[in-house]
Amino acid sequence: MADLTAYLVLAVALVPPLFRQSQRLFGSARSATHAPPPSPSSSRSASKARLAPFATPFSTTVTIATLALVLVSLANLVPVQYGVDIFIPVQAVHNLRRSIYTLYTAPSVYRASSHDDVDRPPFHIQALRGGYTPDLFLAYSAPITIPTTTLRSLIDAAPSLLPIGFHTLPKQQELQALIARLSSYEARRIYLLLGPKPLLDCTFCTKANDFFWYALPFLLAAYAWRILALGLITAHPDDSIAVAIRQAAGLFSRNPRAPPSSKSDDADRSKWRTPAVTLLVALMAIEILIMFELGQVTPGSARLNHWHSNLHLVRQVAFLAIVVVIYLFPSPRVPDTFHQTMQHMDATQQNLQSILHLTEITDATRAVVLDDRDLLRRATTERKHSTTDSAAQLLRAVQTQGGDAASDTLAQAQNGIRSVTLQWWRTAEQLNRQLDRGSPSASSSASAPPHSAAASDPSTNPLAHGTFP
Q1: Do 116 and 259 share a domain, yes or no?
Q2: Is the CB of residue 246 less than 8 Å from the CB of residue 260?
Q3: Comparing C-alpha atoms, which of 177, 206, 211, 175 is closest to residue 192?
Q4: What is the pLDDT of residues 338-367, one digit of tens each?
Q5: Cβ distance 175 to 148 under 8 Å?
Q6: Fewest C-beta atoms under 10 Å: which of 78, 82, 246, 348?
Q7: Do 347 and 227 fall within a single domain?
Q8: Which of 328, 356, 388 is the last residue of a domain?
Q9: What is the DSSP string of 380-426?
């Protein structure tokens, strides 16, 4: 036995590296025959193209998760009488346990710890049966005020208990216990609001609020896993979970050295996350309010009395509709690295053009200042005072008063630079206008007041539109 265990450990340790190495060699052998990838299409055509559900590992994961959620919701809408039951005999489980004990322990230990399981019922698996179970009053069209003996007789006279899900021997025992608990009006109200589980499982509950608090965690769990599933479906292709899925898929790829697949086939459904989660949280809040406050049960056989069955159907239909709409609604594709690089280069080119334009304006302003003695003297004086004093003032403000004072000082400095630059621009504009008209004196015209009509024209002054910072 020890030798077999050692061989299993060696196999587990050695087989995965050998398998990965063989995949790498196989991928490198096929790489020579691979055709070159097609040229990427434009971003507009890519955004309008139809999304492939199995194009990338992330889209495959989202598709499989969506199909699983749709199947679960549809199964919960199917009545419990439709489906297949799986029964595992106790003898088969008994033989399996005996084989395990014989392999890893002494037979005497198994005989000492084994019990007689001959009389136990077989294991019942209901995974392939419908998930909608109506309450007893709805299944037999009985009013909620029906006497307990009459309800028991009505159930006993039924040809089959399959429509209510109590067709096996353990379930029939639970049914008898449930009928015994439905002897009071308060118990029937709790049954119609919460279902049979709190009445059957909560042995320490004595008041109505005890049953409500017992059922609350199950309701929260029913919504919690749905919210987590929506988080996976609405994940952005650049999120950490999508990156982890692509990295995990790379471990099982035939060519580990190949570059990662393009994200242009992944849909961006992240915009649906907030409205979908908000809708589910609103439904959960409504169910909690109905459970504690709004759920009223009136005498008779009205459909509104069956709160638990109605809310089960509403919950499944709402979740199914949310998942289908999120997956099938046209969503934009995420641009791949090439298109993102082109967009960044476009933005960089526009910024460079703006900087070049500002540089030309600065050169023209410098030329005007150098040609005018008054402006040159004023600029030199302001530079001497502003550079040293402003820097010293800024340092003192940072050291004494903190970042707010420094921000105020910087704002004042920017306003001063804006006003001086505006005056320079108006002077340069006047000089250019006079040169165009053939004026002989450029110096006298350069010293003209800055509030002239020609310089204040907003169509020719880029500073009026906020060109400078």
Answers
A1: no
A2: yes
A3: 211
A4: 666 666 777 777 777 777 777 777 777 766
A5: no
A6: 348
A7: no
A8: 328
A9: HHHHHHHHHHHHHHHHHHHHHT-HHHHHHHHHHHHHHHHHHHHHHHH
The tokens for 203 are 């042995």
Do residues 18 and 10 make contact, with C-beta atoms less than 8 angstroms apart?
no
Task: Please indicate, yes or no, if residue 26 is contained in any of the structural domains.
Answer: no
Q: For the chain, what is the domain count? A: 3
- According to DSSP, the β-strands at 86-88 and 123-125 are antiparallel
Residues of the chain with pLDDT under 70: 1-52, 104-121, 123-124, 127, 167, 253-265, 300-301, 333-343, 366-376, 378-380, 382-425, 427-469
pLDDT, one tens digit per residue, over 215-238 is: 999 999 999 999 999 999 998 888
At residue 113, what are phi and psi to the nearest 5 degrees? -100, -5
Six-digit token string for 457 = 């024209």
Residue that has been written with the tokens 């150098």 in this structure: 370
Classify 125 as helix, strand or coil. strand
pLDDT digits (tens, 9 = 90+) for 64-119: 999 999 999 998 898 887 877 777 777 777 777 777 777 766 555 555 445 555 56
Q: Residue 111 belongs to what domain range? A: 86-125
Nearest to 130 by CA among 67, 73, 76: 76
Instruction: Assign 172 to helix, strand or coil.
Output: helix
Residue bearing tokens 């059957």: 200
Residue position matching structure tokens 């967009």: 343
Q: At 233, list the tokens.
A: 């479906």
